[in-house]
């Protein structure tokens, strides 16, 4: 101990390899001293789990809407329920994301009409299927290029049933940057593509469409003759 310090000393000596009892080379002699301070600092680590740095994962669906418009300019939306039309009247439909997003595009995959808003399998009438027009009056205006899809078709009615017509459409939502997405590929005759999509899909229903009273009066005498 030297003035409160702990001192370690040692001596190291060394000679080169030689033979016999003599050498003509100097040898090594080293005095080693190590002074240890009386105080010390220790360090250890611990980690605090911060409750404010947590992760939350959830799922949701895009908010889409479908509506009729009065003209092909798509300026004025139809708000009448039911929507009264005449046979062969041009009907204009728009499906869009409620909040437009330039990084997404919307593709019209399938549209089917039915006399009931709850049953689209028993008596389906397809306007569009797998992105391909089925009805002869169906006219695509835009699909798969923007965050909305637009099309038109001519009004019709179902035989042997209610005067109402409901329209159900399935749309796909894809990244605009994906040039090989289902939205970009357009019409596909392969039904297998309809079964499962790698992109978000949504199904919407709009209606009812009904004939105006003047149209019903025209049909009255004909139906009586058939009876």
Structural class by helix and strand composition = mainly beta
Overall pLDDT metric: 76
Overall shape: it is: rod-shaped
Percent of residues in helices comes to under 10%
Number of helices: 3
The unreliable regions are 192-197
Q: If strands are numbered along the chain, what order do they take across the biggest sheet?
A: 4-12-11-6-7-8
Q: How far is the N terminus from the C terminus?
A: 126 Å
Q: Give the biggest beta sheet.
A: 6 strands, mixed
**Rg from C-alpha positions?**
41 Å
Give the strand tally. 12
Tell me which oligomeric state these chains represent. single chain
H/E element string?
EEEEEEEEEEEHHEH
**Percentage of residues in strands:** 35-45%
Task: Detail the topology: elements first, then pairings.
Blueprint: E1 6-14, E2 28-36, E3 64-69, E4 83-85, E5 90-97, E6 104-114, E7 125-129, E8 132-133, E9 139-142, E10 148-154, E11 165-175, H1 182-185, H2 192-195, E12 200-211, H3 213-226
Parallel strand pairs: 4-12
Antiparallel strand pairs: 1-2, 3-5, 5-10, 6-7, 6-11, 7-8, 9-10, 11-12
Description:
This protein has 3 helices and 12 strands; from the N terminus they run βββββββββββααβα. Strand 7 and strand 8 form a beta hairpin. A 6-stranded mixed β-sheet has the order 4-12-11-6-7-8. Strands 3-5-10-9 form a 4-stranded antiparallel β-sheet, with no helix packed on it. Helices cover 10% and strands 38% of the residues. It has helices spanning 182-185, 192-195, 213-226, and strands spanning 6-14, 28-36, 64-69, 83-85, 90-97, 104-114, 125-129, 132-133, 139-142, 148-154, 165-175, 200-211. With 227 residues, it is mainly beta. It comes from Ilyodon furcidens. Residues 1-190 form the ZP domain. Residues 196-227 are annotated as: Disordered. Residues 212-227 have a biased composition (Basic and acidic residues).
């Amino acid at each position: 101990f030297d003035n409160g310090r702990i001192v370690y000393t040692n001596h190291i000596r060394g000679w080169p390899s030689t033979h016999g009892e003599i050498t003509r080379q100097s040898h090594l002699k080293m005095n080693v001293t190590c002074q240890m301070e009386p105080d010390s600092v220790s360090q250890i680590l611990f980690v605090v789990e911060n409750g404010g740095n947590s992760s939350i994962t959830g799922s949701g669906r895009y908010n889409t809407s479908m509506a009729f418009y009065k003209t092909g300019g798509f300026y004025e939306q139809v708000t009448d329920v039911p929507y009264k039309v005449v046979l062969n009247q041009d009907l204009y439909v728009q499906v869009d994301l409620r909040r437009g997003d330039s990084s997404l595009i919307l593709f019209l995959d399938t549209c089917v009409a039915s006399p009931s808003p709850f049953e689209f399998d028993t008596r389906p009438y397809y306007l569009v299927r797998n992105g391909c027009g089925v009805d002869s009056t169906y006219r695509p205006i835009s699909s798969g290029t923007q965050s909305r899809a637009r099309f038109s078709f001519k009004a019709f009615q179902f035989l042997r049933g209610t005067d109402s017509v409901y329209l159900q459409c399935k749309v796909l939502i894809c990244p605009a940057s994906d040039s090989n997405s289902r939205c970009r590929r357009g019409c596909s005759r392969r039904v297998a593509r309809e079964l499962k999509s790698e992109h978000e899909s949504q199904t919407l229903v709009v209606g009812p469409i009904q004939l105006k009273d003047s149209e019903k009066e025209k049909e009255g005498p004909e139906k009586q003759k058939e009876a």
